[in-house]
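User: ok so my PI wants both of these folded by tonight, can you help

Assistant: No problem, let's get them done. Here's the first:
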Amino acid sequence: MQRNVALFFDANLSPMSEERHGTRRSGGPRKAQEIFDATLDLLADKGYEGLTIEGVAQHSGVNKTTIYRWWPSKGALLGAALIGARQLDLAPPDTGSLQGDLEALLHTIAALLTTPPASDIAVAVLGAATHSTELAAHVKDFFADRIAREEPVFTRAVARGELPADADPMLLVDLLAGAAWIRVVLRQLPLEKDFVSRTVHTVLAGARAAD
């Protein structure tokens, strides 16, 4: 798995205040990344029902009391792992055009849904969130974090005149990601070679026509 984000320990941040914000990137135990990696690996292997803090402790080499100190439940732990894990990190693309940026984002989403273990993680989280109100709240935080990271793509597009100032970034991302989710997860169909470019073109053409 690719690891590309450093995680720093900040002794001034309390476990509970950090948990309420759904992120551990600016605070957490010294081996937070090992905990996150173990959490996502176990989720992909055993599903949400099989994910336990005891199992994460064993696989990460961290005492379970340390994990419980920061995350009092597996839902809270998984929510933090989704946002803070390096293997799910997202760097917003900057290709010079909105079409290129959205194609890069959709390629990332498509890879997430079609490449194990990320695809197993995505499907397990989606299924579990429909049955766990606690996990659903943390998944909501994850998507809020993602749209915040993607915001520069749309800010630049507005500045270049590619989108109107009142364009809805969340709607555009939902249309693109939703197309991939439905095609891959629900319809169980492969993505054609031109799926990404065709989907982005269709969504943008619709947005521009409305404008």
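One down. Here's the second:
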Amino acid sequence: MTPTALDASQAGARLDELTVLDVRTPGEYASGHVPGALNIPLDQIRRALPALREVPGELLVVCASGARALSACEVLSEHGIRALSLTGGTQGWAAAGQRLDRPAAGARAVWAMERQVRFTAGTVVLAGLGLGLLHPAWQLLCAGIAGGLVFSALTNTCGMATLLGKLPHNRTRPTDLDATLAALAHR
């Protein structure tokens, strides 16, 4: 059976023969990525399909923890493009002691989206609990966040991440998809 995922050590050993696609947001990508990875955010993967069909060798799809990479691999598979995912994503890669490429000194890194969601959810819950001391109705805010987190887990979607992704600090570094696709064509 052909593997559909590689762990960090397997991917590290084969990095020079793989074309690595990072499907995170540009801000997440800029915070640190697998060496040589090209940034094609998940929401732009369909636009990149023609170029991805022409890539020689195997594709390795990477995100923060692995969920978005699996979604991208499903889209690619539906279009006849075989791709592997990185088990544990960039977090697993870094935890295994592998090197991450980071932006040049002085460039502003953006927190990973998962971290932004945890921070925002925690802050809103704490605010709801604090304001709940003034009036119990504020505790409904905590219940709303809890319900949203449960829904997020059940559907493997995240409305809060979608909203946070629209904030200016998450959109400051747009992916130059045309340049990325041109780089793919020269591999």
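Strands lie at 5-6, 18-22, 38-39, 58-62, 83-86. The mean pLDDT is 88. Good luck tonight!
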